[in-house]
Amino acid sequence: MRLKERYRRLTLWNKISLWGSIASIVSIAIAIVLWRVPISAPIAIDWSAALADLQLLEEKAKGDALMSRTFWLAREPGATISLGECPSDKCMTFKLGRLRLEDRQIIQEVILIGDGFGVKHRPDTKYLVAVDNAIRVKGAALSLSLSGGPTVLEFGLQKGAEFEMFTPHADLKVSIVDLRTDSLRIRLDVKPPSGFSLN
User: Fold this and answer.
1) Beta strand spans in the chain (E)
2) Quick one: pLDDT at residue 44?
């Protein structure tokens, strides 16, 4: 007797049992394959060495962002990321500070630590604080400490807000990703240095 004829003679419950058995065998086979085949781990970016790689990747990048890091503001209070070797003149550390409400606007403080930002106290001149690198802001402000404390980027969470800094080591841009209260996000993009200057 052929298999088709045998299958036709089975009752409904026997057919369900047959297909259940086949599904179980296939599931076990898939589980064994997935267990035995190693799953590659996600590629980790060594941010501390990121600036050293910029010169090597500059030709391939053609102005596109080489590295991006998204900060989830409500989920990652105090999140920190460093670019360049620290301490050194290339060190740039971004740290999420307070998330506050001021005049009906939500402001995320981003603390900028390191000599790579080019913010210096100049006792030898008439200026107390100098910024060596060109910056461009929209909906944001740079708060400079006269007492030697950290520089704070006060980033207003509004549509189109941006902060850009052009350093000899990299061009940096902070921008809005999502303004929904349950998923507030900003993004840091790092590009090869463009040489842009205000001079």
Assistant:
1) 67-72, 80-83, 92-102, 105-113, 119-121, 129-131, 134-138, 140-143, 151-156, 162-166, 171-178, 185-191
2) 43
